[in-house]
């Protein structure tokens, strides 16, 4: 597989949060793009999802409809592509095991990118709710390694637009408050989803990244919560009232009966208290995405805030689709 070569790319989870960025990035880079989606039933789908599918079709994306349990249909679809990128959300990580089995039978997949894109799961020690998520991702990693299918694992750290929404709530112009997890001084990596998708498409077609881990630590996107809030205050001219949530409080919140609330709190603990996106050195065989593609112009955190200034979202963002 030649670097930059146009490949037939199948995206699972293409109508979800990151998947939409991924599908559009694939098309923009000129790859024949395919999406495997659940059977389309107009009366069950939200109007926004129907509109997105129509947009995909207008972009030339080929849509396969099926369930991951429909093994033969899945194998037939996979035999038409070269590369598989999965962006399934939190409840569905282990569904990827069905995709791996189907890819092995298809026998033609040149690269598998499983649904990760967050913290480097093999090097963190998370609280129980986040540990349950990471354990599923590790299970998929080990299955990918045993499958014999060329793979790449991607640690893209924090999604920029998502975390800007959580930390700054730019969709509410009347709100002058910010919640800070811990002291606010821990460094984390805040990468714009559009860049995460564009880099991932480069990684997926690059022979240098086969059977490797690629870390997305872009220098201008390494920031602290306090720096992020300060930048926003300067851009908006509004001082924000800061509420600090202590380490002890975050641990307590991670024990919530609501799994989603517990998961969010335990992820915040990993990122903002333990600093697990920046507290390890890259190993000799790790790949740094910025060094792999030094000419790619990515969006800095400062530039991302400018985007939010010009076009603030109408509501919060959820990645749990």
Automatic annotation (TrEMBL):
Keyword NADP recorded: yes
InterPro entries reported for this sequence: NAD(P)-bd_dom_sf, NmrA-like, NmrA-type/Isoflavone_red_sf, PCBER-like
Superkingdom, natural source: Eukaryota
Keyword Oxidoreductase in annotation: yes
Keywords linked to the UniProt accession: NADP, Oxidoreductase
Annotated ranges, domain NmrA-like: 6-304
Any Pfam family: NmrA
Molecular-function annotations in GO: oxidoreductase activity
Name this polypeptide is given: Isoeugenol synthase 1
Organism: Heracleum sosnowskyi
């Amino acid at each position: 597989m030649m670097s930059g070569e146009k490949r037939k790319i199948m995206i699972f989870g293409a109508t979800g949060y990151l998947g939409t960025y991924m599908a559009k990035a694939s098309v923009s880079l000129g790859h024949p793009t395919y999406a495997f989606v659940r059977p389309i039933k107009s009366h069950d789908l939200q109007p926004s999802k129907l509109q997105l599918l129509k947009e995909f079709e207008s972009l030339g994306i080929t849509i396969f409809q099926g369930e991951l349990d429909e093994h033969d249909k899945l194998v037939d679809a996979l035999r038409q592509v070269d590369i598989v990128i999965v962006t399934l959300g939190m409840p569905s990580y282990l569904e990827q095991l069905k995709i791996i089995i189907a890819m092995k039978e298809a026998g033609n997949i040149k690269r598998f990118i499983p649904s990760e894109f967050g913290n480097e799961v093999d090097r963190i020690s998370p609280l129980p709710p986040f540990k349950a998520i990471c354990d599923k991702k590790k299970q998929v990693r080990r299955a990918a390694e045993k499958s014999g299918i060329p793979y790449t694992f991607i640690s893209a750290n924090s999604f920029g637009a998502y975390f800007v929404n959580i930390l700054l709530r730019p969709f509410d112009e009347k709100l002058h408050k910010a919640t800070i997890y811990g002291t606010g001084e821990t460094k984390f990596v805040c990468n714009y989803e559009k860049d995460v998708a564009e880099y991932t498409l480069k990684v997926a077609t690059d022979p240098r990244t086969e059977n490797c881990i690629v870390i997305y630590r872009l220098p201008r996107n390494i920031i602290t919560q306090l720096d992020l809030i300060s930048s926003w205050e300067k851009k908006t001219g509004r001082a924000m009232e800061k509420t600090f949530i202590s380490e002890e409080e975050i641990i307590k919140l991670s024990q919530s009966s609501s799994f989603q609330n517990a998961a969010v709190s335990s992820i915040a603990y990993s990122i903002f208290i333990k600093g697990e996106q920046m507290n390890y050195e890259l190993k000799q065989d790790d790949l740094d995405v910025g060094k792999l593609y030094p000419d790619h112009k990515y969006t800095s955190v400062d530039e991302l805030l400018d985007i939010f200034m010009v076009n603030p979202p109408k509501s919060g963002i959820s990645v749990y689709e």
